[in-house]
């Protein structure tokens, strides 16, 4: 029961009493409101002023803009919030005290992660009135909104596990933050770069080996699976299903490779499952790093081996 986790309760009280929390909520929702109202103005009022017809399908683009800004803020905020969760305790020299309590390393990790996710869920729910702008005209259903909120939760767990892992692995919050942002950058842009680079090399090979008159498009096939760990592609896949505005994902499929039909149709499901599995592995690894008995077990095992060798030599 996560609500009974003492670490979670302590972090929740600290967050609720902090002025920074309210400043972040105000800043995020203010930024989303500006983007939403500006997009609404460009789509309707501005089009009428210049004499163009108003297309009510543009409301889907407004939804894409608002959710895109919120998702981008999620990518920026979560690594920063979670990277100092454990390393901050090390710097304050309170981690050893925390480990002497009845809490297991896994409970500490879960408490820190859920506290960070709670902050992101608070931001997501507080932004619902801004996203509800699209309901003034139509085109987006409550089911679409619920799917987006679930994506926010899954991505927060995924990115949060990366920050927690480096926070447990490294001693300084600065180092953990740099490592977390570097990993997120690698997942978001590095996978795109890898897919583009592999396609570029294959295309060069085909252009030199094939007919120069007939253009042949390279197909990198299963290399496209690298994008399953990319949270941006997961977001584009949900847009493709909801508003048909995930053109980037569709162009990737058409230009870079052909995947099995089941993977094309259920990309969101496969990518979500893989990212959750990665998050679980990282959280278990972080708990193992924090385990104070790990070093003692290794020393005891080493002593037993030395004792057996001495007895065998005698």
Secondary-structure map:
Elements lengths: L5 H12 L1 H31 L8 H26 L3 H5 L3 H5 L5 H22 L1 H4 L10 H28 L3 H37 L21 H12 L4 H10 L4 H5 L1 H24 L2 H21 L1
Helix pairs in contact: 1-6, 2-3, 2-6, 3-6, 3-8, 3-9, 6-8, 6-13, 8-9, 8-10, 8-13, 10-11, 10-13
Structural description of this entry:
With 314 residues, the chain is mainly alpha-helical. It has one domain. The chain has helices spanning 6-17, 19-49, 58-83, 87-91, 95-99, 105-126, 128-131, 142-169, 173-209, 231-242, 247-256, 261-265, 267-290, 293-313. The longest helix has 37 residues, at 173-209. The model is unreliable at 296-300 (pLDDT under 50). Pfam families: ABC2_membrane_2 (PF12679). This is ABC-2 family transporter protein. The chain crosses the membrane at residues 21-42, 62-86, 120-142, 148-166, 178-198, 267-293. Keywords: Membrane, Transmembrane, Transmembrane helix.
Query: Structural class of the helices, strands and pairings?
Result: mainly alpha
What's the helix-strand series? HHHHHHHHHHHHHH
Shape: globular
Count of distinct strands: 0
User: In terms of quaternary structure, what is this?
Assistant: single chain
- Radius of gyration (CA) equals 24 Å
Low-pLDDT stretches are 296-300
Number of helices: 14
- Taken as a percent bin, the fraction of beta residues is under 5%
Assign a percent range to the helix content: over 70%
How is the main sheet built?
Answer: none
Overall tally of domains: 1
| End-to-end CA span | 54 Å
What's the mean pLDDT score?
A: 78
Keywords: Membrane, Transmembrane, Transmembrane helix
Transmembrane segments: 21-42, 62-86, 120-142, 148-166, 178-198, 267-293
Organism: Anaerocolumna xylanovorans DSM 12503
Pfam family, one: ABC2_membrane_2
């Amino acid at each position: 029961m996560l609500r009974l986790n003492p670490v979670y309760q302590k972090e929740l009280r600290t967050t609720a009493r902090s002025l920074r929390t309210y400043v972040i909520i105000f800043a995020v929702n203010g930024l989303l409101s500006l983007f939403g109202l500006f997009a609404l103005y460009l789509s309707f009022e501005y089009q009428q002023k210049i004499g163009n017809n108003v297309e009510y399908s543009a409301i889907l683009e407004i939804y894409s803009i608002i959710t895109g800004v919120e998702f981008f803020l999620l990518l920026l905020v979560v690594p920063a919030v979670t990277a100092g969760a454990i390393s901050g305790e090390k710097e304050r020299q309170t981690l050893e005290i925390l480990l002497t309590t009845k809490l297991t390393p896994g409970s500490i990790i879960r408490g820190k992660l859920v506290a960070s996710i709670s902050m992101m869920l608070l931001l997501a729910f507080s932004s619902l009135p801004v996203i509800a702008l699209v309901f003034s005209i139509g085109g987006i259903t409550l089911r679409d909104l619920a799917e987006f909120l679930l994506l926010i939760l899954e991505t927060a767990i995924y990115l949060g596990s990366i920050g927690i892992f480096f926070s447990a692995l490294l001693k300084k919050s600065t180092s953990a933050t740099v490592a977390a942002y570097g990993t997120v950058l690698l997942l978001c842009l590095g996978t795109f770069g890898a897919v583009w680079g592999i396609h570029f090399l294959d295309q060069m090979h085909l252009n030199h080996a094939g007919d120069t008159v007939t253009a042949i498009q390279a197909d990198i096939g299963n290399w496209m699976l690298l994008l399953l760990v990319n949270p941006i592609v997961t977001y584009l896949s949900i847009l493709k299903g909801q508003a048909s505005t995930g053109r980037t994902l569709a162009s990737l499929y058409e230009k870079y490779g052909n995947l099995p039909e089941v993977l094309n149709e259920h990309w969101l499901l496969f990518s979500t499952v893989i990212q959750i599995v990665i998050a679980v592995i990282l959280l278990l690894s972080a708990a193992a790093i924090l385990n104070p008995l790990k070093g003692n077990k290794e020393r005891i095992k080493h002593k037993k081996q030395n004792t057996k060798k001495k007895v065998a030599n005698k």
